Structures are given as C-alpha cells and as structure tokens.
Amino acid sequence: MREPRDRGETLIEIVITVVITSITITALVSSLATTGSAGVAQRNRAAADTVMRNYAEATKQGARSCVVGGAYSVDYAVPDGYTAVAEPAGDVCPDASSVKRITLTVTDPTGVADSMQIAIRTP
C-alpha cells in the first residue's frame, strides 16, 4: 500500500508566481504613469497653441490701426507660466508697399517652445 503524499505547492512554484505577479504589476503601474504624463504634455501643447493663436490675432488686430511711420500696440495678456516673444522686436508699422514678417514664439510652463510666422501690412 502507498503512503499518502502531501499535494501542496512547492517553494519554487510560489517564488515564480510572486516574481511573475510583481513584473506584471510593475509594468501596469509604469504604463499608467506614462499615460498620465502624456496627457499632461498634450494639454500643455494644446494650451500653448491657443496662446500662440490668440497672441497672433492680437498682434494682427493691433496692426490694423497702422499708419505709415506710426506704431501699433499688442493688447494681449499672456497666461501665467507662458511666455510670448515677437521677433524682430518693435511695433513699428511697415511702409505701405512692404510686408513685415514677425516670428512669434510661445514657451509653455515645461519649457517647450513653438513658433509661428505672421505678416503685417499697413492698410
């Protein structure tokens, strides 16, 4: 007659199960963190694009009052954390027969910059 044997799990099986479970949970947490970071980056880029377009529209609106030899002003308050710069600097209206090209650069709170070029004419 055979003796009854314990049919439990071995130590090796338990260790392998714990290792596989740990790797799976680590990968899951890592992917969730990456998804969260990507979402924040996307929101920052979308907000920076909105700031850029609003700043460009404010610049064009200011230039609509241009007279030859005069100056225009840009009336736009850049949101906190963002910076907006126009190159070349200055608000001098161009001659009636020329076009002034301005490069607008907006930097978001994380330091990522985006640029846009606009043309200003004296009406």
What does this structure look like?
With 123 residues, the protein is of the alpha+beta class. It has 1 helix and 3 strands, in the order αβββ. The chain has one helix at residues 11-63; strands at residues 83-87, 99-107, 113-121. Strands 1-2-3 form a 3-stranded antiparallel sheet, covered by helices on one side. The radius of gyration is 30 Å and the shape is rod-shaped.
The chain-level structural class is alpha+beta
User: How helix-rich are the residues, as a percent range?
Assistant: 40-55%
Overall outline: rod-shaped
Mean pLDDT: 87
Strands, total number: 3
Tell me the number of helical segments per DSSP (H or I, 4 or more residues long): 1
Strand content: 15-25%
Number of domains: 1
Q: Write the element-wise H/E pattern from the N-terminal end onward.
A: HEEE
Q: Give the N-to-C terminal Cα separation.
A: 109 Å
Order of strands, widest sheet:
1-2-3
Q: Tell me about the largest β-sheet.
A: 3 strands, antiparallel
The unreliable regions are none
Short description:
The protein has 123 residues and is of the alpha+beta class. It is built from one helix and three strands.
Describe the protein's topology.
Elements: H1 11-63, E1 83-87, E2 99-107, E3 113-121
Antiparallel strand pairs: 1-2, 2-3
